[in-house]
Amino acid sequence: MATNLLKLNNNKTDLMVVAPPSLSKEVGDILLNVDGCTIRPSQEVRNLGVILDCNLSLQAHISNATKSAFFHLKNICRLRPSLSDSVAETLIHAFISSLLDYCNGVLYSLPTEALDRLQHVQNYMSKI
Description:
Blueprint: H1 21-27, E1 32-34, E2 37-39, E3 44-47, E4 50-53, H2 59-79, H3 85-101, H4 112-127
Antiparallel strand pairs: 1-2, 3-4
Helix pairs in contact: 2-3, 2-4
């Protein structure tokens, strides 16, 4: 990395071991040493705004997206009496739909139980 004038940012560098729960105990505690910096494994990492966990269940990502969506929905509900229908629709699409659509391809193979919370956001969104 030094030859390319690159430096590792210790605060933003994460390591995650992806393995089924039965094999994760066999892997043990891995320490990675890069240019004198020791990187320890994390249970969750963020890459391009998607939170991945070591089981690839994406529960942390879904929780984060749901929390953020309901925060924006709550604020839009407060303003709703003073907004026209078209303005409310624009705000909902700008803040919530874009949040739910971002990187939704990674959610493709998840079971429906995992996606129910996102569906709940969409159902609530349609009522406003």
